[in-house]
Amino acid sequence: MTKHLPQLFTIFYIFVLLLMSCSSQTVSPPQVIQEITSTNSASSSVEIVTSTSAPTGLHISDSAPPTLREQVESWDLPANASVHLDVSPFAQSDSTETKIQWIYALVAPFPTVKDGVTFDELHLAWTEGTAPAPFSGIPLLMDESTLAAFTTLWDAPAAGSVRIVPSDQLLDVAWTETCTEPCRSAPSWAIIPFELLEPRWKVLTVDGQSPIRKGFDIASYPLIVNFTLQTPENFHPSSFNLHSSNYDPSKLTTVILTGVTALVRATAYTMELKGSTYPGERIRDLMREADIAHVSNEIPFFTGCTFPKPDAGALVFCSDPKYMDLLIDIGTDVVELTGNHFADRGSAGMLETIAIYNENKLPYFGGGIDLQDS
């Protein structure tokens, strides 16, 4: 029996090998391996956990606005570089992090009468779906990245309080739904990144703050999202095309257009009673704040203009030259002369008016002493 043992062992070994070769083999996907080392001491339950390095590559959060995402995606990253971009609730950063501040704007179609809301009203619309007039029952429009960013800051919005629209369609959707004839009484409103502003949007203030105003206080403005860009220590984002913000006040130029101005009849009568600068008292600061304040003054200044009557029926007008004080007081930068009443006092009235503008070094256009001057 003993002499047959080697044979039996050989047969058994071959049989085991056959069984192993017939079994199915499963290849597991690559994983981040965690090595857990525990002490053998019965008195300790502490485990020391170590992890391997995260996979290299570019990781951009869904909350990143399209403009910022495109900047980072355009980089030619070094081999084995791991870059992460995500919302950050903190202002501080370490040496491997770059802070990026993104400004957003609350907007509505330009014909909207409402000028602004409080942050409490906006936040209530987000959390409870209760929007202030005239936006009652109208969801906030925004793209997916904006929703993701503000969900991080404010938690998930109430059901029906937000509606997702692709960023390149937001303006058309808001205008179509607000101003398709007949225009509805409740306009659309939206939250968009500052860089997507254009003239057909009206920027609504939030707690009196607007990023298109010269007096904008960024520290008290609630529609700001901070992003953190995490990079390796030997990687310097400053060498790439990266903007630390989408808002640069040095590149902001503000223009205010008053529309047609006619210092006659009831307006002129009130100026006689309360002073020439009275009509501008409540708009003076706003007008002066603008880089360019435009006034289309369609009435000529004319010496000997009769005392104004609130109910004057004649449609041949003139303004007392002393009313020029109003245009100076509100900070007028340029005057338009295309009004249809500018010639009401003939060439004498037009030339006197232009002389007054020249004396005050006030530029004008749309008219002049001759074709060249016009």
How is this structure best described in words?
With 374 residues, this protein is α/β, with parallel strands linked by helices. 25% of the residues lie in helices and 21% in strands. The chain has helices spanning 5-22, 66-73, 119-128, 144-154, 170-179, 265-274, 284-289, 324-329, 346-359; strands at residues 34-38, 47-51, 57-60, 82-87, 97-109, 116-117, 140-142, 162-164, 189-193, 201-206, 224-230, 255-261, 292-297, 334-336, 364-365. Strands 3, 4, 5, 6, 7, 8, 9, 10 and 11 form a 9-stranded mixed sheet that branches. A 4-stranded parallel sheet has the order 12-13-14-15, with no helix packed on it. The longest helix has 18 residues, at 5-22. The radius of gyration is 35 Å and the shape is elongated.
